[in-house]
Amino acid sequence: LLTLAFDIVTRDEIHKDPTVRLLLTRALARASGIGGMVGGQMLDLAGEGRFGDREPVDVARLQQMKTGALLRFGCIAGAILGQSSQKEYQALDDYGRALGEAFQIADDLLDVEGDAAALGKQTGQDAALGKTTFVTQLGIDGAKQRVRDLLSRADQALSIFGPRGDILRAAARFVAERKS
Predict the structure, then answer these.
(1) Which of 58, 121, 151, 180 has the most Cβ atoms closer than 10 angstroms to its Cβ?
(2) Which CATH architecture has domain 2-177?
(3) What is the pTM of this model?
(4) Which of 62, 96, 54 is nearest to 79 (CA)?
């Protein structure tokens, strides 16, 4: 699927300007590569001890990578395609960072509190693997507070868009409050 994503973002019909397609491709490469999803997965596996001794995990960095980086890409991709102003791009980037981290923390909370049937997967896997998460570092209440703080940060980032940002605000709430 990742290879298909690169194929799609480089197609002429995505945008008439090849520079825009190049910027989009670069952003996807950064979000999915060693500084994003792939690098985050490597940190996660190292934290589990998959490469030898268990390595300490910088949870904040890990959360910004992995799936969070791809969610952030989705936010800035719109800015790139729409050739937004630098201020709008930065707002969507800030929103994307908050959204990505909130998604990861909500996922960690679901692993602890979620219903396996609703999730379609076993819960308790992070604990079984000895993973360090915001839930293990901050506790359930602390992780929930961090998600609320991230929702506030996402909302603040969207303030320049006024009501036009309401769909993105709703998306952030959905990510934070989902049950599956």
Answers:
(1) 151
(2) Orthogonal Bundle (1.10)
(3) 0.89
(4) 96
